[in-house]
Amino acid sequence: xxxxxxxxFIKRAKKGDAHAFGIVCGGLSQDAYRFxxxxxxxxxxxxxxxxxxxxxxxxxxxDLKKTEAFRTWFFKILSNICKSSLSSxxxxxxxxxxxxxPAENENTELKFEMRELLESLPPDDRRIVLLSxxxxxxxxxxxxxxxxxxxxxxxxxxxxxxxxxxxxxxEVQTNETAI
Length: 179
Known about the structure:
179 residues, mainly alpha, 8 helices, 0% strand, elongated
């Protein structure tokens, strides 16, 4: 669906068309679920967070001023729901319990290591990395979602990615010396 079609569906949804809203949310569902899963670390909690975000977005849709900002606005809602859900749960679910969808040539050990690396980041930095890498948002969009300055987002993203790169380099060197 192109941007113009999406805007038309959003405009229809703002007028109360639930079917149009379902199409809009359906278009975001994979990215939203993937983001929530990395954030929540539990498939059931991720599904709940996405559903809660869809419900809240539907309820608050009349407040949306710019239809072209829907995706950013929706992910801000989702991000806040994930953040508040985690703080109210206070339960840490081990990352190895997250089921992976089977795919060809997928290295599950590598995926587990990537999750561990993400876990090593402070929560706010992890949120920024996930919004950038998983959801594909720009630093300006992440700034809107997180309520931060775009320069701060770029700085934190850069620092977090450098940290991940350093950890990967250390891991590679450790593995090479063990051989």
